[in-house]
Structure formats: structure tokens, C-alpha cells
Amino acid sequence: MVAADFIEQLLNGLTLGMVYVLLAAGLSVIFGVMDVINFSHGELFALGAYFSLSIIAPFGAGTGFWIAIVVAPVAVGLIGAAIERTTVRPLYGRDPLYHILLTFGLVLVTNDVIRLIWGTQQRQLAVPEYLSQPVSILGVQVSVYNYFMIVFAALLAVVTWYLLNRTKYGMIIRAGSQDREMVRNVGIDIDQYYTLVFGVGAALAAVAGIVLGGYQNVNTGMGNSVIIPAFVVVVLGGLGSFRGAVFGGLLVGVVQTLMRAYSGSVLATFGDTTLTVPNLEGLTVYLLMIAVLLVKPQGLFGTRGEESDGEGEILVGGYGGVLADSTRVRLGGIAVVALALAPIAILFMGDQYYLVVLNEILIWAIFALSLDIVMGYAGLVPLGHTMFYGVGAYTAALIMLHYSQSVFIVLLGAILICAVLAWVVGSLSIRVSGVYFAMITLAFAELLYSAVFKFDFTGGSDGLLGFEALLGLGTVGESLSNIEFGLLGYELGQQFVFYYLALLIAVLSFLFARRMMNAPFGSVLQSIRESEERAEFIGYDVNRYKRRAFVISGGMAGLAGGLLAVSPSTVIISPDQTLNWIHSGEVIVIALFGGMGTLYGPMIGSGVFFGAEEFLSSYTDQWRLIIGTMFILFVLFVPRGIVSIPSLVAQRLETANNADGAVDMDEPDVRSDD
Amino acid sequence: MSSEGTSPDSSVGIDRSRRQFIAAAGAVGVLGLAGCQGGSTGGEEAVTVASLNPMTGPYSSLGPGQRTGAELAVAEINNNDDYDFEFELVTGDTETEAGAAQSEAQRVVQEEGAEFVFGAISSSVALGLNDFAAQSEHIYFPGGAAVPITGSACNEWVFRFETNTAQIAEAISAYSVNNLGNNVWFHYADYAYGDSVYNRTSRRMENTSDDYTEVGTSTSELGASNYGSFITQISNSEADVVMLGMTGGDLVNFTNQAADQGLTDQMAVVGPTQTFQSVRAGTGSNSVGTFGGARYDPSIETGDNQAFVEAYASENDRDPGNFARVGYDSMRLMAKGMNEAGSTEPGDVRDALEGGTFTTVLGDITLRESDHQATNPTWMAELVEGGSDSADVELLEQVPGSETLPPASDLGCEM
Amino acid sequence: MTETVLETDGLTKRFGKLTAVDDVSLSVADGEFRSVIGPNGAGKTTTFNLITGALSPSEGAVRFKGEDITNVAPHERVGRGLGRSFQITNVFGGLTVRENVRLAAQSVYSDEINPGEALFRDKNGFDEIAEQTRTVLEQIGLRDRADEHAEALAYGDQRRLELGLVLATDPALVMLDEPTAGMSSEETQATMNLIDEVLSDRSLMLIEHDIDLVMRVSDRITVLTRGEELASGTPEEIANNEDVRDAYLGGVRE
């Protein structure tokens, strides 16, 4: 009985594992060959399931399912190939960072398109009757569909393996995923294969979507829910390794399932001590991933050396700017004065909600600034930066609930706890570089995200409420929400007080960061970004500098999180609001969007991002589609971010003027209309 | 996980320190008097009401129903001469996430000037909006079912027409033990809602029958997608009944996999929200043979339900579900409260709603004075083969509100 | 009596089954210009990396100024006076020429900067560093171009800057990895002149495969083949060495 039970669990694990294999195979090869961190892989997976829904509808489950499983992946594959041609291709040779911005935009666009076409209702993907029967073999009872999933996915995996290992195309792709330069050196144009790889990867993801859709259901969140486990699989198995994807997928599927089934159950009893399986469901895979990366940074089957990563070019926002430094300082001053006066304008408009938006912008400006310190200056890309934002917010809320309500003590606490956390995470992860660093920080963030659901003191899924900050020290001070004063007959409330507090902290954080970057410590960070190897061989302990930068950055992100909790607009701190990986993606996108490596760029990015969101969402429900498209266009045409627009315009004007002057003398003011 | 003892629903650590939006004492630098933008009474005035629903995120399949119901109510109220005011509806997307919901609530209240807010489904979001309502002193009708919303986190500004988990759990517990079997396995998602289903149903079952046995329990994470391992475990136990403390996508996935693995044929699968339209849509014929509590069904003859169903169906080409009914009557209760109060001032409306009895699609219900929870009846139902793709609901037994709603003190509400 | 600045003792590096460097023991005297030559695959670059710390040896030891540095991190070796240049020009392209040199100079003084200063004091406010920077810019002849971005420099000037970076760290021994790779004979001459000009007062170790060049500039030459030391000696000794002639000068040289 116990054995049969275990075998059933194992089969369940394999079923899920096979889905991961299909997902990870494409992701891993795309990752390995092109260095593309493809966040949109999950949406292509969902697209496969949604296409099938539409295909099955007219034919019925009996035949429709089989038509869908062939046609839908082909369609998604074509879409994948088109995506590669139009958006990914122009970015080769740039740092993988830009793929994050690009594919993040693709996620927003695809997801919105799915919602627009198919609606938000979750649906059932009908599978043929004979597949959805329970079947019992030797006392082991699972659904026929489980066996179907395992066999079908295994078949596809074998075919993929064959294509990769026994065909010329496959050999080239495999070689490319190990050493692109070498393949180029022997005279093969590896770039030509990218479209094929991307298309096939997308098709495999679509198959996974259909298969899993038939097992569970089809909903708009399905892509988002598999993408992170899929990344875990890829990193565990080793980037670019098909064998790794297979092994990693099965491992994660089985471990997840077994931990779920047996957590809390008694393993053995020795006298008084009972050994139980700890309730770590949800945490296990991330712990596994961290452990593997620490021992074997290139993953279980990875063959690529670490040196071959992060070779792409990072485009810093400020470089080549046309504005003189003094102009910039003046503009910055004007911006701060305008922000300081903004509440007065808001007061006359009588709409305090704008203040709520401005507060959010300021908090995220600090968060994005903190990211710029490590990303724009030390060249580290943490995909789990929201762990500091979230832990800062939770720390602040907990301090307010249990120890002190003083704003200053609360914020200080958030900074310190996050700095310590950053030191621990940094010590463990900084020795791995490039995408591995990105992934290991993601694993830590996901670990914390899963953990807050588990504990009572963090309020589980509900989060924390009922906290309040006082503007003062200790218990002496005025409650933020009690501070009220009138001006010219207008009521100035808590939002105003907080706004000025946030503005002050944002300006001070910026000045702190700027000072730091002009001091010896910051100058070394910049040298590390330019050339890590060189920095080491003029005598700098590169890892130590990175770790310190990470600690400072973590502390500052914690400050942003603390401010979120302190804000009078915040009544609740919940897991999704603070620790969901989406926010790690968002903050990277905001920093790139604004122009990283400039400190002020990411802060501007925050303003434009939330401003645009606020503006667009008041006009249309499809605002994600528009923002996503904006990201895609930016990464293609304005890669240095918003702050580079003046120099781009200047360039354009210059070339236009030259052209006008030389060729088109009759129409000197071509640009006046339109 | 669950806290033991007397107050199972107080697991959410809430330290209620009510915020005063306008505080006279202790004000810093009083330069002038606070302006007051009062709503006048009488006349064909426009009252801004807001509906905040999860249009994206995990509950995006439920939010649109809520919204549609609220919109229908607003249209009817504006065409009805019984009300000498007009509702102006503003909407927002909570994204099923407390942070986004918070800022949307601030937008509709501070920018749009709404003082009557309805919405939210998930517990976390509703609790956040609860607190915000108390802070800014506006009426809030939550759409969430978690007990603490009118339990440990209750406040004077929050009124709930949605039937809470405690009510539904009480209703299905007795029927399950008496008619489906004494050996019960509990499987629930490891978060506030799941915990509270487990606590309530197990307690009620224990009180109902001496032969009741808890065969085992298992928990999964919120949002888990693969339940094969649990189903195997449950299937190998001696249980007659498996009680599911989960809802939404979790419940859909569990039900589909349970049917595939033959669990549904083997024992009674009971889920409080099994009859939800979204669950039925996601499970197709897989939910046939399962049982659930019903908070609502279009077929019921209570109150003015049939008129509602007809109006809704003619607008939307389909019957309303539970969330549409909550949206519909939450809006109507606001309007009825205003009529009762003869004022559109939130404070006056609050006093009129508190302890008041109103006619709804569920018949005459009272918004209890002690916790502002509606005394809704509930139903036990079985899912049967339906004409369309999804299963039909067959109501087995109606349980009156008085029998299902525990006293407010039991639910942790102190107002 | 000249002192020994660098010494390797039985240095061995294996990659799997391949032994890239096999029991190499050499010593470089203070002030000496030592060259290491050998055909491709002879283990020159691996030896270089073992000495600079980019790789750690399978067996054997490296001693620098009398101290065992086998397990000392690369940056720490630089701090002790072991500088290196790169074969492919490796400067901080996005930074100004002055900042490039200043960073190298700063590294020498970084122990004397306290944490507060490191975080908050203006990087240009340290007199000794500024002085060192000026001197080096002068020496490498890039003072006029100090405010340009390094990546905007012509190739030859980038090579100068590359050497400037090494020079600014004030090394006792400079390891040069094929500094003239891919250069025309004029450029090669100019580069060697530059090395002579700015680094003449340091010990030098040159990794090179251009035998003619090596013969002209070196005090002593070490010849490697298949990871092993074939011979060491003055240019004349090497030129007259039978083994070298058989293994290297006669055979492989094209």
C-alpha cells in the first residue's frame, strides 16, 4: 500500500515534471544560444492553451484535441519566430538585461491580448473522453491523462534530443550554446539559426500549455505561474543544456510533488525524537536551486564557463549626453522645486489623490535608485531586488505593530535589517556572475515570498494591518494621520506631511548616491562595470566592492519599503504587493526605461512609469498593452532610456539639418507641420 | 496555520487603532479651519458610488460578474422614481492585490469623491479596504467571504451582503455528516480562507453527529496547481467525504484532477464554493457528482430574485452568478439605506443600515447590528449533468440564515 | 648581488588529463627584463595566469619578493607590486583617460582611505592620488587627451593608456602579455620604445612569440615547449642552444 502510494506520487511528480521539461527545453536552449532571458516564454505557453480552446470548440474534444495539439504549437511557433525577427534580433550583442525589458514588455502585451480575445474567465480545455478516465495498474491508480502527458512529452523530448544531437542544425545549435564565438570562428553564421531556435522553443512551450491546460484549466495567470519554476529548472540543469532541462524538469516536478505529499509526515522515531519531513513545500525548489548554484554555479549539466557571461554591452543612460553638467544640476534643482510646490497646485485643484500617486512615485524612485547603484554602477543585475523592498515593508510594519511607531526608528530598522539581509545574500551570491547572479537572487526573493505565507507573524496571505507611524522619536510624537493643518482655508493632512517626508528622503538618497559615486568607493564601482577583470588587476577586491554596493543598495531598497509601510495611504502590507517577483522585474524595467547608470534616470523612470500608468488606466483597460508596447519600442530605439532623449533629438536634428541643407533647400521647415 | 481554541478566525493579527481622518486635538499649526465638503440632502442629486473589482490577477474570472451586477443595480436605481437621487458609478481594478486595491480606493474616494464603495473578493484586499473605510469614514460593502471582514476586522463603516464562509460552512457541515458519510477528510489551502473552512466545518460536524470522525487532513499552498499527490493520499484513506477548504483556481484544479483520478466516483467531494459559476466553467463535466454549499442560485424564488434574474439575463444573455448578485444587492442596499435615512450623508446612511431589514434577492435580510453581516439563507447543493458544457446546480436543502450565522462575538467582532 | 623578485617552484597546472604547465621553476632578478617564449600551446599564457593569480596551480608555488603568494588573490598580488597588462587592450572605455589612471593610482592608496572618506570625499580631493595621476599621464604622453573617453582614443593611445594603468599601480614587476600582438612593425617598435621609456626602472616579464623582438630586448629568455621549461639564458645562449634550435627555431617557426 505504502509502495503503491509512493509510486502514485512519483507518477504525479513525473507528470508535472514533463511539463517543466517541455517548457525548460526551449527556454534553456534560447537562453544558452542567444543569452536571452525570455520572460515571455510563459505567455507563449498560455497562448498555446488558448489557441487550443478556439480550435477545439468547433471540432469537439474527440478530434479537436488532436488537431489542436498539432496546429496550436505550429501557430505559436510562428509567432515566436516573428517575435525573434522583429524584436529580439536587433538586441543581439547587448547585455541580457535588455532582453528583460523587452520580454517584460512582450509579457504585458501578450497577456493583455489574451484577455482581450478570450476574456478573463477560466476555462476548461476539453480532452477526449478516453484520456480522462481513471485507470488502475497494479493497485496504482491515476488518470489515463497522466500517462498520456508523460508519454507524449517524453516522445517530444526524444524527438528534440534527436534533432539536437543527430542533425546538422542541431549540432550547430548545441555548439552555439556552448561557445558562440567558436561557432562564428569556424565560419558558421549562428545568427541565422536563432529564429529557428526561438520558434521551436515557443512551439514546445505551447505544447506544454496545451497538455497542462487539459490537466488543470486555462486561465490568464497560467503563464505567470509557470515561468519562475521554469527558470529554476533551467538554472538547476545548466544554461543551454538540453540534458539539464530534462533532468531539472523531472527533478523539480518530483521534488515539488513529494514534498507536498509527505511534508509533516513522520520519517522515523528515535526514542524521544521524531524525525518529520519539514513543511517546506514551495520553499524546497528554491533552496535546492540556491544549494546547486553555490556548489556548482554552472548548474548540474552546465558546460559553459562563467567567463562567457555578461559579455554584452550595457548602455548607460548619461554617457554622451548633450546637456552640460551645470544644466543638469539646474534642471534637477528646478525639478525638486516643482515637486516641492506641487502640493500647493494640488491643493487648489482640490484633488488629494494626485498626492497619493506622487507618494508612490517617490517611493519607487528611491527603490529604482537603489537598484541603479548595483545595476548601473557595479554591473550586477539582481532579479530579486524586491526582496529588500518587501522585507523593508514587512520590517517596518512589524516594528510599528510591536516595538515603536516612530517614523525614524521604523525606517532605520528597515534599512538595517535589509542591509544585513543584503550582506548575507550578497556573500552567498556575488561570487557567481551574470545570469547566475540574477537567478540566485531571484531564488532568494522567491524563498522569502513563499516564507511570508507560512508564518503567523507575517500575517500569512492576508498580510499585516493595523499599524501606524508617528512623526517623532520613541512614543513621543505626532501620529502622521493626526497631523492636520489648514492653509488659506484649505486642509493639509497626513498626505502632505508624508509627501514632504518622502520628498526629503528621496532627495537625500539621491545626493547620498551621487556623492558616493563621486567618491573613491563609487569610482571603483564604475570601473567594475566597465571591466571587472581590469579592475581586479589594478588591485581592487572586486567581490568586496560589489558586496558592499549590494549592502548599500539593499539598505536603500529597504528604506523604500519602509516608506511604503509608513505612508498614510498604506493600510495593509501583503505578500503580493511587496514580494512578488513581478516587482523585481518592474524595478529593473523602470531603471532601464529612465536610463540607468545616471542615478536620476531611474528616478525619472519611476515618475514616467507610474504617471503613464495612472494616465492610461483612466482612459482604457488595455493600458498594459500600451505600456508593454512602449517598453518594446524603447528598448529598440531608445536603449539608453528617457534621459538620453535630448542627445538623440540633438543627433537627429543635426543629421536632419545637414540633410536639409544639402539636399532639400526648397523646404527648410519640413517639420513644421504634422 | 490555524490557531487553536476559541476564536479560529482571529488568526489575522489585527491591532485595531482606528485612524481619525480629521482630528481636532493635537493638530499642528492650525492656520485655518478644515474645509467641509458635505453632501446635501434631497433633490435629484448625484451620488458617486464606486465598484472596485478584481479585473486582473488570480480572481480576474470573478471580478467581471461583480461589476456587471453593480452596473445593473445602478441602472435600475437611476430609472426608479422611488429614489430621488442618481448613482454615478466609478470603477476600479484591484488586480487581486492589496497594494493596487489601496491606491484604487484612494483614487475613487479622493479623486472621484465616492463615499460609498463596494468590491473586492480576496480576503487581503477586503481587509485593506475595510481599514481604509474606517480611516476616511465612508460606507464599504465588501465582496469577500472571509470571516474576519465582519469578524475580527469589523468596523462601523463596513456592511456585508456577501454570505460569509462561516455561514456556508455551517450549512454544508450538517448535511454532509447526516447524509453523505461520517468519515471526513479535510483538504484545504494553507491561508486564511482555507484555515477558516477547516475550523468551522470540523467543529460544526463534531457538534452535529457523534459518529463523525476526522480521518485525516492535508494542506496545499494557495495557488498550487498539482493536486495529484493529495488525491492519491485521500483516495487511499477510509474517508466517505472529502471537504475542500479552497476556492477559485485551486478548487478548479483539484476538482479536475479528482475526477480524472476517480476520486469523485469513490467518495463525496464537498467544497463550499463548488457551485460557483467560475468553478463550474473551469471544471466542465468533472464537477458532476460533487457537492457544494450554495450562497445563491438563479433558480431560487426568494425575495425579488426572479425579477433580478430576468433583468440580468436580458442585459447579459446569461444568468447571474453569486458575485453578480452580491454586486447587485450591495448597490441596492446602499440606495435603500439612503432612502431609509433620508440622506446621502455616509454617517446617516450607516445609522440607517445598521440593524435594518431590507428586501433583497435572498428575501428579507437583516444587516446585524452587532457586526453588519447580512443574515442570508444558504443552500446545500449537488452538481448534476447539465445541458451545456458545465454542470448544473441542484439545490438539495435550504438552511435559514438564523441557523447558520454564529453570534458576532463568536466571530470576533467588537464594535 | 641582485635580489630575486619573482620565483616559481615546480609550477604545474593540469586541465583534466592535459598538463598545460609542467614543473616550471624560474626566477626573475630585480631589474631584469625576462621574456618567456614558446610556440602556441607551449603553456606561456597559462604560466602567465598562474603568476598573476588568474589561475591557481595544481602543484608548485609562486614567490614574489621573497613571500609565498601562491594562495594570494590576484588583486592582492597587484597590491604587493605585481602588475600586469592585457593582450587585448583592456581599459575602462566609458571613463575618461584621467579617470582610468586615477583609479589605478587610487588602488595604491586605498588602504590609507578610511571608510567615511571612501564613501563621501570627492575622489579628486586626494592630493597624492592626483599627483600620481598627473605624473603617469605625463609619462605616457596623454596629458592633453586626459578628458577624452578612453574608448575614443586611437589604438596606439589605448595601448599607452593600458601601460599607464599598470604604471600607476607602481609595480615592482610588470607582466606583459604579448603587448605587440597584431601590430605592424612600426607599431611594434613604438610600443617597445614606450615600454622602454616608462617601465625601464621596473622588472619586466614579457610573454611573446615573436622571437626576433625577444632577442632584441630581453636580458634573459626562458623557452617553454609543451608546458616544460626547455632552456633559460641570455639571448646569445638561447640562440646557440641546440635544443631550442631543434625544438623551436628550426621546426615550428614559419
UniProtKB/TrEMBL annotation, chain A:
Please classify the protein's predominant subcellular localization into one broad category.
membrane
Could you tell me which Pfam families the record lists for this protein? BPD_transp_2
Q: Which residues cross the membrane?
A: 18-37, 44-60, 66-84, 96-118, 144-164, 193-215, 275-295, 331-349, 361-380, 409-428, 435-455, 496-513, 549-567, 587-611, 623-643
Indicate how the chain sits in the lipid bilayer.
Answer: Multi-pass membrane protein
What's the protein called, per UniProt? ABC transporter permease
Q: Would you say which domain of life the source belongs to?
A: Archaea
Q: Per UniProt, which keywords does this protein have?
A: Cell membrane, Membrane, Transmembrane, Transmembrane helix
**From which organism does this entry originate?**
Haloarcula argentinensis
Spell out the PANTHER family in the cross-references. ABC TRANSPORTER ATP-BINDING PROTEIN (PTHR30482:SF17), HIGH-AFFINITY BRANCHED-CHAIN AMINO ACID TRANSPORT SYSTEM PERMEASE (PTHR30482)
User: What compartments host this protein?
Assistant: Cell membrane
From TrEMBL, chain B:
Pfam families recorded for this chain?
Answer: Peripla_BP_6 (PF13458)
Superkingdom, taxonomy of origin: Archaea
Instruction: List, for all copies, the residue spans of the domain called Leucine-binding protein.
Output: 47-387
Q: Which UniProt keywords apply?
A: Amino-acid transport, Signal, Transport
Q: Does the keyword Signal apply?
A: yes
Q: What is this protein called?
A: ABC transporter substrate-binding protein
Which InterPro entries does this chain map to? BCAA_transport, Leu-bd, Leu_Ile_Val-bd, Peripla_BP_I, TAT_signal
Protein species of origin: Haloarcula argentinensis
Automatic annotation (TrEMBL), chain C:
Judging by the UniProt lineage, the source's domain of life is Archaea
Q: Supply the Pfam families for this chain.
A: ABC_tran (PF00005), BCA_ABC_TP_C (PF12399)
Record-linked PANTHER family: ABC TRANSPORTER ATP-BINDING PROTEIN, CONSERVED COMPONENT OF ABC TRANSPORTER FOR NATURAL AMINO ACIDS-RELATED
Q: Give the GO terms filed under biological process for this record.
A: amino acid transport
Gene source species: Haloarcula argentinensis
Query: What does the record give as the function of this protein?
Result: Probable component of a branched-chain amino-acid transport system.
Provide the alphabetized UniProt keywords.
Amino-acid transport, ATP-binding, Nucleotide-binding, Transport
Against Gene3D superfamilies, the record matches this protein to: P-loop containing nucleotide triphosphate hydrolases
Instruction: Write out the GO MF terms.
Output: ATP binding; ATP hydrolysis activity
Q: Which InterPro entries match?
A: AAA+_ATPase (IPR003593), ABC_AA/LPS_Transport (IPR051120), ABC_transporter-like_ATP-bd (IPR003439), ABC_transporter-like_CS (IPR017871), BCA_ABC_TP_C (IPR032823), P-loop_NTPase (IPR027417)
Listed SUPFAM superfamilies? P-loop containing nucleoside triphosphate hydrolases
Name by which UniProt lists this protein: Probable branched-chain amino acid transport ATP-binding protein LivG
High-level lineage: Archaea, Methanobacteriati, Methanobacteriota, Stenosarchaea group, Halobacteria
Using the record's annotation, list all stretches that form the ABC transporter domain. Answer: 6-251
Give a Gene Ontology cellular component term annotated to this protein: plasma membrane
Q: Hey, which family's this protein in?
A: Belongs to the ABC transporter superfamily.
